[in-house]
Amino acid sequence: MIRSMEGVRVSTFVTPRAPLSxxxxxxxxxxxxxxxxxxxxxxxxxxxxxxxxxxSFFRTVLSSMExxxxxxxxxxxxxxxxxxAHNGDHICYDHFAFRTFxxxxxxxxxxxxxxxxxxxxxREELRFPAKKLKALWFAPPVGHYGENGSGxxxxxxxxxxxxxxxxxxxxxxxxVIRKYTNISGSGNKxxxxxxxxxxxxxxxxxxxxxxxxxxxxxYAAWTLVNGYALNHVTISTHKLNSHIKxxxxxxxxxxxxxxKLNSExxxxxxxxxxLLLQSSTIADSxxxxxxxxxxxxxxxxxxxxxxRLVLPQYKHIAEEKIEEFHRREGFEVGNADKIxxxxxxxxxxxxx
Length: 352
Fold this sequence. Notes:
Elements: E1 27-28, H1 30-36, H2 55-72, H3 74-87, E2 93-101, H4 108-117, E3 121-128, E4 133-139, E5 158-164, H5 171-184, H6 191-197, H7 207-216, H8 218-226, E6 232-236, H9 247-256, E7 269-270, E8 276-280, E9 285-289, E10 295-299, E11 302-308, H10 333-339, H11 345-348
Parallel strand pairs: 2-5, 6-11
Antiparallel strand pairs: 1-3, 2-6, 3-4, 4-5, 7-8, 8-11, 9-10
């Protein structure tokens, strides 16, 4: 069973934002997002934030997404088993991540709907110009959902959804992507269902189309064959109980047990403020049956690790009293840009 992160306990406390990094120009501020959303406070309960989806149904969907993810990603399964054997059965998750095509309604909004319906709140936008991507992350609903539980029955994770800016792609590749989103038709309305079933909302693509997309955007090629499938889950290392709660020790532990880490920008990705530390494995690959009778290995998903350090203003608080909202919040463009490379051909074929 995949474990999820501990919830943000903020019944009256507004979650603090970490100082903006040098990449702030690539991100919309929370304030600007609030202007876009009709006067919805970021971390305070309101009638509009109340879940419109039954909790039991929502957790069943998450459970189905996790089963598909584990079935395609033996590395993630093995890492989770290893950590449980060393640390005990309680593993918390920092976030779940998804990839989408930003065209014909198949972008971020299509995957975000079920999370917004359950009370998640839109937070910040991140931009990745070189990769022709943008992303939004979503905070779990205010309250204590599954606070004492674990796995998909425990505290809810953040959600990170990215989309390819299709209009910035070359005309031939825009045509390829639109061919499949047109086949999908209204499939974008059922993104969560597709993710839970492990099914594409379009027909299996041609290998020639996959190859063509991969030459311009490996993200596009990944999304063509994986669709709305869970791209990765992230262990919150600071929530572990043993010495591997320190992410540097965690990374050594993972490598000592034979797992390869994404080396883009170094094994450990560190935000400019030094408070968000991330790493990830290399994606697994499995055979895929293309429509033109070709079967080839394609990258699937990976597992990420994150440590959020305590914000400077809370350093005086005893460790046993530290809550998630005392720690660095949000995401960082520089870190995420390197984590994206976990599915790249360069990382998958790296020898050491």
